[in-house]
Amino acid sequence: MARLMARLMVGLTARRTRTAAGRAGVPPGDGGPPCLDGAGSPGEGGHTARRAAPVAQRALAAALAMLAALCLGAAARVPAPAVPAAPAVPAFDDTPAQAALKRLLPRQAAQFVLEPGPAGPAGQDTFTVSGTAGRITVHGNTPATQLTGVGWYLQHVAGADIGWPGDSLGELPEVLPAVPAPVSRSALVPHRYALNDTDDGYSGAYRSFAEHQRQIDLLALHGVNEVLVQAGAEYPYFRALQGFGYTAAELLEWIPGPAHQSWWLLQNLTGFGGPVSERLLTARATLGRQIADQLRGLGMTPVLPGYFGTVPPGFSARNGSASVIPQGDWAGFERPDWLDPTEPVFARLAAAYYAEQRTAFGDSAMYRMSPLHEGGQTGTVDVRAAAGAVQTALHAAHPGALWAVLGWQDDPTAELLAGVDTSKLLILDGLSDRYNRLDREARWGGTPYAIGTIYNFGGHTTIGANTSVWIDRFEAWRGKAASALRGTAYMPEATGTNPAAFDLFTDLAWEPGPVDQKRWFADFAARRYGRPDPDAAAAWEELRLGPYSTSSGLWSESQDSLFTARPSLTAVGAAHWSPKAMRYPAAHVRRALDHLLAVAPELRDSSAYRFDLVDTARQALANHSRVLLPQIKTAYEEKSLARFRTLTAEWAEHERQLNALTGSDPNFLLGGWLTAARSWGADTAEQDRYEYDARALLSVWGRHSTSEGGFLHDYANREWSGLISELYAPRWAVYFATLEEALSEGTAPREIDWYAYEESWARRTTRHATEPAGDPYTLARGIARTLDS
């Protein structure tokens, strides 16, 4: 034992050196595999104690934790990984908020004084902002709430915006303005949750820690306090299941590539985009720990995936004929099996899972689980008893932890709710703004829930959201007698595409009175570019009246583009599940583009203006695709070859313009998406697998049965430079060529195997620009002129 402890202590020192190198910017895979944290802690109190301990005590604690992990691994017949100590988390009023502030406001951070303050009368997160010019004081009861106070000051006093994406910080004065009178705000709801189960896939499963850190900073700045952490979520499965009859090699085949892991966690698919390497799993677990610790340091809750019974094939045969229910098909994929939670082996497997998760990521007070998501099969399982067993296993590992479940389709069912302590459950309502005549208290029997929005699907680059529905329902539902509304849930399937929607939705939880939608957009226009401008105000008024005032009833997202659709003269949308027609008059976006082009020249240098201009011009041209395609169809049906050629040439020119326009802003580049995927591979073969994983998600999505029978091809369509020029435009060109040939020869058009075409693209390894090129203003003005011609 003494010799083992000595070896652990020596290894700990070496691993700390490697971890420090990784934090300094060594990419995944360089200098050996990243390591995991074995120290764990039962909560923030554990972090505080670890911070206060002398160095020797911390090293001893880490070594003991590592020894425990080794023992667990030995019991499970699995070698334990190298596990370094987690970085010490500073005191709540120490560096986390200040460090975030320096990242967010590098020029003005020193002008803020962030100090601890009391919570509200009922324990609400609360901030107070006061101060003189150049010395702004923000009191908040958590570091994240202090940052929320900074965000409020930037919006309402300094008149600047840090959006997602784009900012107007260049317009801030060197000396920040004084606060006219102290202002206090308290959160109206205790839960301000963020991130869809699909966000890691559609926003970028291969992102770096710096990118995740930026996301956390923005969420804190906008008042969010609970954040889903998916990176590395496969690691506890990989570790725990090796103690239940599976080899590492079997599990590496079963776990999908990172871009598709979101749906594996939802029990929808297995294996696609893999096999993955153990090295990748370890690196992703390290990333997940960094994300979780970053959240803890800011006083935010890392929401970790819980265990509800997902198992690989053959579990029953390897574990005493335990009852396992095949889950059938999901959109053409065979789903993983579901272990009956009432089986005794479930409790043992759940305990092993949570033990491995604790070792890798530490503890939390909130866990995400959605059993039987989108058509799962119950078989002979008593759902009520199963739900109780899932919660019992969670509370055995994490007493009193909150179970967060997605409100989607028919879930959670009455049977599930009847089997659990609903005071320890939070329903994240994904349909709050989509349908009418919703009564969440009646539907869920008074179970606490968060009003949510999913205004983006698949990462589509489309402007719009049902913002007036958010405002009306948040006030109405919160004000109901015996309301069970306890939170907000910001859950677009991909983030970072719609800064106005992000700002407005997160403001709901902090505004003391009903939000005036028209005034909110006017204020947003002023701060978005750094000061009031009549054309900026007019542009955002047009966008408010159009894509940001769509109604509930059928959709929570606006229509996508036909330029990104699989070619057909009758195409009405790119993604099968998207709206089939315009949800607002296209003229609103067209007029908004003209106004943005007229914004004062001195306000055109910000990243916020550049993004909005590119995005609005892109949307105006995308909307025009719905005018041009019917004209092409008419020309073809009338057998007017000359007219057909003219119109299809116009279509091709629009695609060329669209590719150039999106290439002028870093947020619309395919190159970064692909380069990030390749960066996680250790050799060319592994790099190619992960690039395929990332490309497939944007195109075929999955196998032939998934792409065609499951209608998932182009589900994640997006107007990105590189994607347009290499997939969408050539695809349309091939299609139009077959129609022209048919017109010329008087024959039926040749059939095209679109899956084979798209799969071939997904298998490519061509490189694309990772830096923007071209002048956004010139390119956007060119599009405006084209639309006027």
Quick summary of this structure?
The chain is an alpha/beta fold. Helices cover 47% and strands 9% of the residues.
Description:
This protein has 789 residues and is α/β, with parallel strands linked by helices. It has an eight-stranded parallel β-barrel. Strands 1-3-2-4 form a four-stranded mixed β-sheet, with helices on one face. The longest helix has 31 residues, at 607-637. α21 crosses α22, α23 (641-662) packs antiparallel against α27 (723-745) and α24 (670-678) runs antiparallel to α25. Helices cover 47% and strands 9% of the residues.
Q: List the quaternary state of the chains.
A: single chain
How many beta-strand runs? 17
Strand arrangement, major sheet: 5-6-7-13-14-15-16-17
Average predicted confidence as pLDDT: 90
Over all CA atoms, what is the radius of gyration?
26 Å
Question: What is the 3D shape?
Answer: globular
The structural class is alpha/beta
Estimate what percentage of residues fall within beta strands: 5-15%
Measured as a percent range, the helix fraction is 40-55%
Count of DSSP helices? 29
* Largest sheet descriptor: 8 strands, parallel, barrel
- Distance from N terminus to C terminus (CA atoms, Å) equals 82 Å
**Unreliably modeled segments:** 1-93
